Structure formats: structure tokens, C-alpha cells
Amino acid sequence: MLRARNGRRRGNAFIEAAFVLVPLFAILFAIIDFGFAIFLKNTFMHAVREGTRYAVTYKVASGLGHDDSIKAVVKSHGMGFLTSTANAEKIKVRYYNPTTFAETSENAPGNIVEISVEGYNWGWMAPLWRSSTPLNFTVRSSDRMEALPGGIAPPVR
Prior knowledge:
Blueprint (H helix, E strand, L loop, with lengths): L1 H7 L3 H44 L10 H12 L7 H4 L2 E6 L6 E2 L7 E11 L12 E10 L13
Antiparallel strand pairs: 1-2, 1-3, 3-4
Helix pairs in contact: 2-3
């Protein structure tokens, strides 16, 4: 009688393991997925802040203009996520007039500089219960361009 009862229980351990492991892995992948999304957004925020800090110093890298130097700094702090040509085009450098907030083409002292990464798409690693549409990131940082000492002209964009 005991043998007959054990025969009917065969396979229960496999089914119980599936009921436990599937949700466990789903939760584990969701934690990793959301954690990486937060990491990516924070990385881009850090990169544009460093680009803004670099912009207000009016420094330029050897052989580059001011805007290209700023973009190079943002790329270097982007931990490799912005190094491809398509992703490098998502880095934007804009200058605004401080009184009208209209966009201007000059990096003159007193203007506001805005560095941004716009439209970076990142696909979920494991789109379990979410849609598989990519997550879209846009981050911005801005600061005021101060005058250079001695009235020196700012570098060419």
C-alpha cells in the first residue's frame, strides 16, 4: 500500500521546484534589470555634470573646439555607453541667453550652457511582465558661463 501511494507522488518535487524557481528567477531578473536602469541613468547624470563643469572652465582639448571638447569629456565619463557613433550624436551642447532664455550660438561669458544626453534607448534585458519597448533616457545639466579673467575671449565652438 505504501508503494502504491509513493508511485502517485512521483514528479511532485519537479512541479514544486518549478512553482518556486520560476517566480524566484523572475524577481531576480527584475531586480537586476531595474538596478541596471538606475545605474545607467546615474552614469549619464554624472557624465553631463562633468561636461558642464568642464564647459564653464573654457578649456579645450588639443585639436578640438570647445563643444567637441565638452562632448569628449561626457563620453569619457559615460563608462563606454556613449562611445559608438550613434550614441555620441545623442550628446548635445546648447547655449542660452540668461535674460531671454533664447538659444544662442555663442559660448559668451554670462550665457547658460546646457549639456544633455537625449533619446538614449536601452532595451530591457528580461522583459518579463513589462512590454519590450526600450526605456528612453534624457538627462540634462546646466550652469552659467562666467567671464574669463582679464577679458580674454572664449575659445571657438
